[in-house]
Each structure stands twice: as structure tokens, then as C-alpha cells.
Design goal:
The complex is a heterotrimer of chains A (292), B (432) and C (284). Chain A has 292 residues and is mainly α. Chain A has eleven helices and no strands. Classes of the chains: A mainly alpha (292), B alpha/beta (432), C mainly alpha (284). At the A-C interface, helix 1, helix 3, helix 4, helix 5 and helix 6 of A face helix 1, helix 4, helix 5, helix 6 and helix 7 of C.
Chain lengths: 292, 432, 284
């Protein structure tokens, strides 16, 4: 099995990794390193700058409550959204892998929102929350539709959660469907012969076998939710007030509306660090449950 | 299967490639890049890229470019209209070294353009013929403290109240309110006939901040106060009470859910005909006309009556569009183009027929009902010029709008709002 | 015995019904926004704003015509298709090889590469946006759709390598060892034998990446600055989000315009999509 690093295997590495590594390093790593450099300056995105050391970082921690709040809001959003998305997509995946007709139609409908870009999704839901909901309220009188979903700071983040679950569920559901279909049927058959109920089959066989997949799905979803920007930008523009200003929107404004590119970069790099820590914790938790 | 997929994709791309290649991709009003006819001309061909975000100007700008190129075949004028994220696009263009020759940054003040000026990105335009054609007083008002002019004014949009004349008549309001208490009386009368006094789009930050520009104008524009803000000693707490009073009054008399209403939705609400007043600039008419032509023609305009002194009731002349010129531009070409647009007969005809907006160049136009009211109101120089916007930090409108939203939504009280505004000002300032 | 069977059958059917009904409810909820999008796209703007939930009285196609007239839609479509197709080809070529290598050689080097690639999943785009534009200006590939293709290949690499590596692990080594004994070199082995076996995961990679590349907004907005290079999302967005906020009826029509090509791709590859996910992630 062991191989020596011969000339030919060096060539293999070069051919296989060469193109993707070259592109990745050029268009991702280099800009990121540059971004880290800018985060230590007071660059306005345009003219000259001077190096200000770590002062951008101390400022964002000590003297920028709006940014800190936007981070906390993002954590809340990411956790809530990942939780709902995972539970609902798992339930739907279970339902849509049982034998009943029109599975494919339902899968397609639930997947449909994924085909729509985030910006347009935000736009459609903005339209739903403001126009359609109020029309439904007028004709039905249901209080749910009378809530000012994107005009009230108490509800606006829930509105973002609703949209994000609507958008993301189909994708994770499909991954989980793949997971369930990928389970070796002989395990389940054996359990059924031993007299296991459906519930037992789910808790004792399907779920444990799917946990690695759930872990991957939740990791991707979490990283994605932490970086949420487009949908908030077109749904509520961060309003009312700062009611739905997520971290990415705050960073965007700092760099491009207030023209403090250096400080904005510092925020972005700091936040990336936080996402890495979050992801590690999440991986640790799910891998521990997997072992059990 | 993969083969099939790839084949499908490749076929699709070929089909579209062919279609697109065979059909002339010309009719692009958003992007009129008409190549100048290749014929022997004396001067070397030059090109002029014009970047702006003011949607209502689109047809007029394209007509200008076409007419200019017909007269000057060696110059190619390309208009680019970017409405979404225009500031970011402009910055990316700059980072890519492709700053257009003429552009609208959207910020006009000395402090706001500071980064452009310091980096040597924009140039003094005081030598252009169009600037010299302006009255001396206007030229002076455009000068920055270094004695140079960096903005070419193009259009002006007065901000004020537009109102439903039929509802005013029905409520028995015979005289346009010129004081805050007269406005209160008018609102009471409108309520008496079961109509809604105001509609407001407070979902986005910009309508809120542009709304408080006008009532807050005299307050914010005070030079001593702005200087104290820049020095870090001033505070909004000392001056904002009248603005808050006014906002409270408007809020109390706006029955619809304004925090989730954006500008266009508010307009739709107004067009239903049961709302008496809304705040905006004079370029509102086409928006109402698209929904209800009769109502648009029955809509009038007056200055926001913010104080108890009728003489103070003047609209704010907001600098709608100002162009900046890149330091890499060929000034002779820029001069020629602006001269064509604003001084030549052809250009002025296009301006008065298509752009139809008030301007500092004395170009007359067929004013719609809202504009003609505004012109009457502003006779004899009875208006404020937007200077407070010029003295704020860049992007402060965003802070202003956001904080006022918080105040309107009830999540901040006056004291907290004033503090947040102060902090926003200092933060933007210190980040530079 | 037979009665027990009947009982079971009854129970079985009842459970199915519950699942069926709840799924219908879920699907209806999911479809509601799309339904309102469809019915309002064929109404005049005034009716959209004033009578939102009513079914349209007639077919009003002006919004679609506006889009057709105000944008050079075919040109936008051509750019979007070229960018998406070229990016997908590059992604499939490069990531399949890298994924293969990672799956087959479990060395410290490949592990490092793997972690190095994962970094991009957590780094926000805003952090690298302006430096990226500067870099591309330095390389003279701004405002160039092929330059953008390179960025997309880079951005899609981590996820795709991840999926390919998982799928390759499912293929027994014996297959390629047999081929090598026959004298084929690894390159031929990969493209002739392994790659055809990866077709399900390839269709998954194609689907997932074409969605986001097709719909991506911010990158083409800042990278492709001239009008003849614009893509569908950027071209349509300027109609949806005017200076004063969204233009509802045109916006809804634009949304439909931009979704249809993706819907066709999804429906034609759907069958292989789930299969590919099974291969890519379950054992990955």
C-alpha cells in the first residue's frame, strides 16, 4: 500500500492539484491575505493609508456596540435557522422516502425555492409579508397575517428565519433523502424481523446512521447562515432601525457606505475567526453524538 | 448520463451563442453604446463613459448621448445606469482602475468627497463652460474651502409635501398650511372627513432621512453646530427637539403600518385616493401618474410647514444630481459634452422635453401639477439650498435614517436617538 | 391471520394518509409564494399593488415585454450561459482530479490540502471583495467574463472536491488496480475508468454549482462593469430595484425569467442528483 514519492507521483500531484490549487490560491488566499493586511490599516478604499496596527480590532470589540449586536443577532439567527431547517428537512425527508405516490412532485416543490436567487427570494417575500399578508388578513381576519413581519423589530428576525428555512430546506432535505436511501436495507429488514417498530427503526437505526450526514449538513448550513447577506439586504435592508442588521450587512456598510475599508476588513476577518470557532464547536458536538 | 447533460449544456450554449451573435444586440436603452461610424475624421476618436444611478434621467441621458454623437462622430458617449448598489459598483470600478470619466458618487459635500479629492481621483471643474454659465452666487455656493469646484450640478429636486387637492377641498381646507399649527388644523379637518392625513414609507432608511432633511434643515444647517460636531464637542441632543415633535405628529397621524412600507408601497397607498399627504421631492409625479393619472393631475405641492413663522416655510432645494469628473478624463471632451447638454439649443430642447426637471441653468420645461406648484412656491428665491447634507460625514444619511427608524418604531427614546446619532457621526469620522 | 393482515393494512393506510396530507400541506405552504409570484406577474402594476391576492382577470404580459425591451435579454442570457457552462466544465475537470487524489492518497499533504480548501467555506466574501478586484485589475482580467469564470472555478472548488472525494471512496480500488496492471497510466485510468463511474456525483456537482453561479449577483455586479458583459441577475436587478425601491410587477416577471433555465436543468438532472448525493456524502 505504501508508495514512495517518485517522480511520477510528483507529476500526479501536480496534475491533480495544480490547476485547482493555483486558482484557489490566486483568487481566494491572496485576496484574503491582502484583506488581513488592509485590516491593519485605515484605508478608505481609495487613497493612501497608514498602518494602524491592531487598533481596528480593539475598536470593534470595545467601542462598537452596533457591530457586537449584529454579531449576536447573526448567531441567534444561524442557530435558530439551522435548528428549524434540520428538523423540518429531516421530517420531510422521512415522509418523502416512505412509499407513497407523488414523492417526486413534492420533492420538486420543496426544492423549487433553491432555484431562485437569494436576492429575488428576499424580494418575493418582501412582497408576501407586506402586500399578500395584509390582503389575506383583510379577507380572513387571522391575526398571524396582521403582524408587521418586517416592520417590527420583534418579528423581523423571525421573518428572516422563515425565508431562510423556506429557501434552504429543499437542499438539506435532498441530502437527507439521499442519506436515508443510502442506508443498507438489510439493517432495517433485520430489525423489522426482530420485531422493531417504525419508531424504533428510526431512533435506533436510521438516525444514528444518518448523523454524519446531519453533521455535514448542519455545518454547511451554519457557515452559510453566518454569512447571510443577500436575503436580508433585499428583504428588510437591515431595518427597522438596526432590527435585522446581520454581521455581513454591518461589514458591508462599514466598507462601502461609510468608506472605512480598513475597519470593515478587520470586522470581516474577526467574524471569519468566529465562524471557524463556531464550526469547530459544532463539529465537536456532532462527532461526539456520533460516537455515542 | 453525464454525456447527455454536457451535450445539453453545450448545445444550449451554442444555440444561445448563435442567436445572440446573429441578432444585432443593439436596442439597449440602459446602455447605449453606439459605435461612432468609422469614417475618416480629423480628431482622434475619444470615448466618454457616464455613470449615474438616477433612473428618471435614463431616457433623457440616452437621447443626449445619441444627439451628441450624431454631431460628433469621433466621440463615443456611453451611459451606464446602475441603480442597485451603485456606490459599491463605482468603488469596484475604481479598484479595477476603470473609473468612468464622468460619474455621480451620490455624495456632494466637501467632507464626503474628501477621499476622492485626497486620492486625486476627481478634478476641479470650475473651468468648464457650463460652470461659468452659472450665476456667480451659485458658483460660489459650489466652491469648496480650497477654492475649487468638484461638482457639476445637473438637476434640482425640491423636497416638500405633496397633497391630494380633492381631499383638501372636501375637508374644507382653503389655504395651504404655512405654519405647524395650520398643518395641525388641516390634519384635524382631514380626520373629520374620515380620510388618512399622512402616509409614510419608513421601511428603508433613505425616505426617512430625506424626510427629516427638510423640516430639520435650518437646524442641521447651522454652521456653528456642524463645526462643533466635527470638533467632537457638539451633540444632537441640543437641537433635535423640534424635529422629534414634528415626527411624533406625523407618526400619530399615519394610520397605515409605515415601518414595513417602502416608498413605492406608500405611493400605491396614496394613489388609492384616501390619503391626503406624503413627503417627497417633486419628481413624484410620474410615479403617481402610472397608478392614477387623474389623481396625479390633482396633486399639489407645498413646503413643509415646520415652524410657526410663515416666512420660514420654504422647500429644500435638494441637489438631485451632480456629476464628478475623473482626473483621467479628457477635459476638452467633458467640456464639449456638458456644453452640448446644458447650453446648446439641441441639448436644452432634450432637457426640457424629456428630462423635465428644475435645474440651475434656466432651462424651462412643461411642468406637471406638482412641479408647477413648487415653482410658484419657490418664486423670488424662496427656498433653502441643501447645505446640511454637504457638511455631514459620508454615509451619515444611513445612520440618520436608521436611528430615526428606531425612534419611530419606539425602540429608542429621544435621548437614546440623539446619542446614537452623535456616536454614528463620530464613528464614521474616526474610521477615516 | 387474514384479519390481522387486514388490520395491518388498515393501519398502514392510515399512516400513509397522515403523511400524505401533511406533505400536501407543507407543499402548499412552500408553493404559496411561488403561486402569488405567478399570478401577480401577469397583472398590471396597479392591480398588483391594490388587489394582490385576487386571481388575475386576464393575461397581462406587459411586464415581460418591458423586460424584453429594456434589457438585451438574449445578450444577458448568452453571457450567463457562457459563464455557467465554462465554469461548470472547469469545476468538473479540476475538482474531480483533486477529489480523486485526496480520496486515494491518504498522506499528510492531501490532508493539508483538504483543510486548506475548507477555509473558504467559512470566510465571508465581503472580506476579500475589494482585494480580489484589485488583484484582477493587476492581472488585467476585470470586466472579462473569462476572468469571472476563473473566480467561479476557484469558489466552487472546495465543495466540489469534497463531494468528489466522498464518491471516489465508494469505488473499490481493485477496479483501477486491474487497469494499472494492464499498463494504463493513472491519468488514463482516471479518465477512462473512474470518471465514468462518477457520473451521478458529477450531475450533483453540475446542479449545485450551476444554481449559485447562475443566480450569483454580487460578483458579476462588481466584476463585469460594462453593459455588454452583464449577466441575467445583474441585468434584471436594475429593473427590479429601481432608485426608489422595488418595482413589483416587473420584478416578479424578472424572477420568473431568471428561474426557468434553472428549472429545466433541475428537472432534467433530478434523477441523478439524489443518487449523486448518496455517493458523495453518505460515505464521504
Amino acid at each position: 500500500m505504501k508508495k514512495k514519492l517518485t517522480g511520477s507521483s510528483l507529476l500526479e500531484y501536480l496534475v491533480c492539484f495544480g490547476p485547482s490549487m493555483l486558482l484557489y490560491t490566486t483568487f481566494f488566499m491572496l485576496p484574503m491575505l491582502l484583506g488581513i493586511f488592509y485590516s491593519l490599516t485605515n484605508w478608505d478604499g481609495m487613497g493612501n493609508y497608514s498602518i494602524v496596527g491592531a487598533s481596528n480590532y480593539t475598536k470593534l470589540l470595545l467601542n462598537d456596540p452596533v457591530f457586537v449586536q449584529s454579531m449576536l443577532r447573526t448567531f441567534w439567527f444561524a442557530i435558530t435557522s439551522v435548528l428549524f431547517t434540520t428538523i423540518f428537512s429531516m421530517l420531510c425527508a422521512l415522509a418523502l422516502t416512505s412509499k407513497f405516490k407523488a414523492n417526486n412532485l413534492f420533492r420538486t416543490i420543496i426544492f423549487l425555492p433553491n432555484l431562485i436567487s437569494m436576492v429575488i427570494t428576499g424580494f418575493i417575500w418582501n412582497f408576501l409579508f407586506t402586500k399578500v399578508f395584509s390582503s389575506i388578513y383583510t379577507s380572513t381576519g387571522l391575526e398571524f397575517f396582521n403582524i408587521s413581519w418586517i416592520g417590527d423589530a420583534k418579528f423581523v428576525m423571525w421573518a428572516v428565519v422563515i425565508v431562510s428555512v423556506w429557501q434552504g430546506m429543499g437542499y438539506y432535505m435532498t441530502i437527507y433523502i439521499a442519506g436515508i436511501l443510502g442506508i443498507d436495507q438489510s439493517y432495517i429488514e433485520a430489525a423489522v424481523i426482530d420485531g422493531a417498530t417504525d419508531r424504533q427503526v428510526f431512533w435506533k437505526i436510521k438516525l444514528p446512521l444518518m448523523l454524519p450526514l446531519v453533521s455535514i449538513g448542519a455545518f454547511l448550513n451554519l457557515a452559510f447562515c453566518m454569512k447571510t447577506f443577500d436575503v436580508v439586504f433585499s428583504l428588510s435592508k437591515g431595518g427597522p432601525g438596526n432590527g435585522s442588521e446581520v454581521a455581513m450587512l454591518n461589514i458591508y456598510r462599514e466598507a462601502f457606505v461609510y468608506n472605512n475599508f480598513g475597519y470593515g476588513s478587520a470586522k470581516a476577518i474577526f467574524f471569519a475567526g468566529i465562524i471557524i470557532i463556531f464550526s469547530l464547536i459544532q463539529q465537536r458536538i456532532t462527532s461526539r453524538t456520533e460516537v455515542e | 448520463m453525464l454525456k447527455k447533460a454536457v451535450t445539453i449544456l453545450v448545445l444550449l450554449s451554442m444555440v444561445f451563442g448563435l442567436v445572440a451573435c446573429s441578432s444585432p444586440v443593439a436596442e439597449t436603452p440602459a446602455a447605449t453604446t453606439t459605435e461612432a461610424a468609422v469614417e475618416p475624421v480629423l480628431a482622434a476618436p475619444t470615448s466618454l463613459n457616464v455613470f449615474y444611478y438616477q433612473e428618471p434621467l435614463q431616457l433623457g441621458m440616452d437621447a443626449m448621448a445619441q444627439a451628441f454623437m450624431a454631431d460628433n462622430p469621433n466621440i463615443t458617449v456611453t451611459n451606464e445606469l446602475v441603480t442597485a448598489d451603485h456606490a459599491v459598483v463605482l468603488k469596484s470600478k475604481d479598484a479595477a482602475g476603470q473609473l468612468p470619466e464622468v460619474f455621480v458618487t451620490g455624495s456632494y459635500g466637501e467632507r464626503q468627497l474628501k477621499s476622492y479629492i485626497d486620492a486625486g481621483k476627481i478634478v476641479d471643474v470650475s473651468g468648464l463652460k457650463v460652470i461659468k454659465s452659472l450665476p456667480q452666487a451659485v458658483q460660489d455656493s459650489l466652491k469648496f474651502s480650497d477654492g475649487k469646484i468638484y461638482n457639476i450640478p445637473f438637476t434640482n429636486n425640491p423636497i416638500g409635501v405633496f397633497y391630494n387637492k380633492a381631499l383638501f377641498a372636501k375637508a374644507g381646507i382653503t389655504e395651504i398650511p404655512k405654519t405647524f399649527s395650520a398643518l395641525k388644523d388641516a390634519v384635524a379637518k382631514i380626520k373629520a372627513i374620515k380620510a388618512e392625513p399622512f402616509v409614510m414609507g419608513a421601511k428603508d432608511a433613505w425616505p426617512v432621512s430625506s424626510m427629516i432633511y427638510s423640516p430639520g434643515h435650518e437646524i442641521f444647517a447651522d454652521k456653528a453646530w456642524t463645526d462643533s460636531m466635527w470638533a467632537g464637542t457638539g451633540s444632537h441632543a441640543t437641537i433635535l427637539a423640534p424635529v422629534f415633535d414634528f415626527l411624533d405628529f406625523v407618526k400619530a397621524n399615519t394610520p397605515s403600518k409605515f415601518m414595513e412600507t417602502d416608498h413605492n408601497t406608500a405611493l400605491a397607498k396614496y394613489s388609492e385616493g384616501n390619503v391626503a399627504m406624503m413627503f417627497y421631492s417633486t419628481d413624484i409625479y410620474p410615479g403617481i401618474a402610472a397608478l392614477d393619472q387623474a389623481l396625479a393631475d390633482n396633486t399639489g405641492f407645498f413646503a413643509i410647514p415646520f415652524t410657526e413663522d410663515p416666512a420660514q416655510s420654504k422647500p429644500l432645494l435638494f441637489s438631485g444630481t451632480m456629476f464628478q469628473v475623473s482626473s483621467k478624463a479628457d477635459m476638452a471632451t467633458v467640456d464639449k459634452y456638458f456644453e452640448f447638454m446644458l447650453m446648446s439649443e439641441k441639448g436644452r430642447a432634450i432637457f426640457s422635453d424629456i428630462i423635465k426637471t428644475s435645474n440651475p441653468y434656466g432651462i424651462s420645461f412643461a411642468a406637471d401639477s406638482v412641479q408647477s406648484d413648487a415653482i410658484k412656491v419657490m418664486e423670488n428665491g424662496n427656498y433653502y439650498i441643501d447645505t446640511q447634507n454637504l457638511n455631514q460625514p459620508d454615509g451619515f444619511w444611513q445612520v440618520q435614517g436608521t436611528v430615526i427608524q428606531e425612534y419611530l418604531a419606539g425602540t429608542m427614546n429621544r435621548e437614546q436617538a440623539a446619542k446614537a446619532l452623535d456616536k454614528g457621526w463620530q464613528d464614521i469620522n474616526s474610521g477615516n | 391471520m387474514s384479519s390481522e393482515q387486514k388490520m395491518n393494512k388498515k393501519k398502514f393506510w392510515r399512516k400513509e394518509n397522515i403523511i400524505g396530507f401533511s406533505m400536501i400541506a407543507v407543499a402548499a405552504l412552500f408553493f404559496m409564494p411561488i403561486y402569488y409570484m405567478l399570478i401577480n406577474a401577469i397583472k398590471p402594476n396597479k392591480e398588483v399593488l391594490l388587489r394582490t391576492i385576487e386571481f388575475p382577470k386576464g393575461l397581462y404580459l406587459d411586464s415581460f415585454i418591458t423586460i424584453w425591451q429594456k434589457t438585451s435579454f438574449l445578450n444577458l442570457l448568452k453571457n450567463s450561459v457562457i459563464i455557467t457552462v465554462l465554469s461548470i466544465i472547469g469545476i468538473v475537470l479540476f475538482s474531480s482530479m483533486a477529489g480523486y487524489m485526496i480520496a486515494r492518497k491518504n498522506t499528510r499533504f492531501t490532508k493539508t490540502v483538504y483543510l486548506y480548501l475548507l477555509l473558504s467555506i467559512v470566510i465571508p466574501f465581503q472580506a476579500i471583495m475589494i482585494p480580489l478586484v484589485k488583484l484582477m485589475a493587476f492581472l488585467h482580467i476585470t470586466n472579462n467574463i473569462y476572468g469571472l469564470v476563473l473566480v467561479y472555478i476557484c469558489a466552487a472548488t472546495p465543495m466540489s472536491v469534497f463531494l468528489y472525494a466522498g464518491a471516489v471512496r465508494c469505488i473499490p480500488r481493485s477496479i483501477e488496480e486491474a487497469a494499472r496492471i494492464d499498463g494504463a497510466n493513472w491519468f488514463m485510468t482516471f479518465w477512462r475508468i473512474i470518471f465514468p463511474l462518477l457520473r451521478s456525483i458529477t450531475s450533483t456537482v453540475v446542479i449545485l454549482n450551476s444554481f449559485w453561479i447562475w443566480n450569483d449577483f454580487l460578483l458579476p455586479l462588481i466584476m463585469l462593469t460594462s453593459n455588454e458583459n452583464k449577466t441575467i441577475p445583474v441585468g434584471l436587478m436594475s429593473l427590479i430595484f429601481g432608485q426608489y425601491g422595488p418595482n413589483v410587477s416587473v420584478g416578479l416577471a424578472a424572477a420568473i425569467f431568471s428561474v426557468i433555465p434553472m428549472l429545466i436543468i433541475y428537472l432534467s438532472l433530478q434523477k441523478y442528483f439524489i443518487k449523486g448525493l448518496i455517493e458523495g456524502s453518505v460515505k464521504g
